[in-house]
Amino acid sequence: MKKVLFSLLFLSSFFVVAQHSDKEMSPSAAKINRRSLLIDVRTPAEFKGGHLPNAVNIDWLSADFNRAFDSISKRKKIYVYCRSGKRSKMAASRLDNLGFKRVVNLTGGYKAYEDMQ
Asked: Is residue 47 part of a domain?
């Protein structure tokens, strides 16, 4: 009985870790393609100062943030990033709560991308 309980506990913790790792990755590890969306959640001024190629700007601080995703399929793979990863982590959580299950936060944000260049 103890072995079964331990095995179930181990497998469930492995699933949680595996699920979490799919929710965050570095910009260099992301496989962004035409079927996915790349969303920059920084302000328009920050976006103008530089952004990842093919990114769309949807400001996390905007009152219309949720509404901006109304026409996007909940099945769409969405990558979000900000300057360093804090706002995009909150945005990814919000999108998950809105029913988007394929949201990935690009850890390190635009700063990490610039460091790769």
From this structure: yes
pLDDT tens sequence for the chain (117 residues): 544 333 333 333 333 333 444 688 766 667 788 889 999 999 999 999 999 999 999 999 999 999 999 999 999 999 999 999 999 999 999 999 999 999 999 999 999 888 887
Structural domain harbouring 89 = 25-116
Say how many domains are in the chain.
Answer: 1
Question: Rounded distance, CA 82 to CA 91, Å?
Answer: 9
- Look at residue 26 and give its three-state secondary structure: coil
Q: Which of 58, 82, 91, 104 is catalytic?
A: 82
The reply to whether 61 belongs to the active site is no
* 3-state secondary structure at position 103: strand
